Amino acid sequence: MRNSSSRTILGKLGEALLYSEILKKGFNCYILGSQNINTLADIIIEGNITLEVKTAIYSRNCKRSTYSYAKQGVDKAYSSGWQFGALKRSRSDYYVFVLLEENLDLYKFLVFARDTIKRDQFFYLRPSTGDFKRKKGRARVETVIDSEHQGLNLIFERLNGLK
Known about the structure:
about 20% helix; 3-stranded antiparallel beta sheet; disordered N terminus
């Protein structure tokens, strides 16, 4: 797949993201593999559509974030014992939210048009059931958010649909 910036595109996800009809509606996409999570930071360009993908990892075994602006959230997540989660704020045409499992081999992506989400809002995710360490089934997604960030109900509904 070609990219004018010559940067790595996110494989099958990158191809899926370039279908504008899907982007306008919002969708979820699963990627199975052993990609290094840091390679998910990228910019995808196709016509007038620009997506900026960034992630922050919260894990019992990982205290640091991939981006400094998420440092406070990561520290809070670690102290709470969260096993996985994601944070995303895009300055581009669409917002991309990434859900990561603890072993980082399964990703869930949600894409929303910029005007459906208020700027600078963010959220955290954590498993509400299940046991990843002992592989006793898949955890459900539980959203955790502060009172001033109540404008993300649309995202919550979509995430609940990924159970």
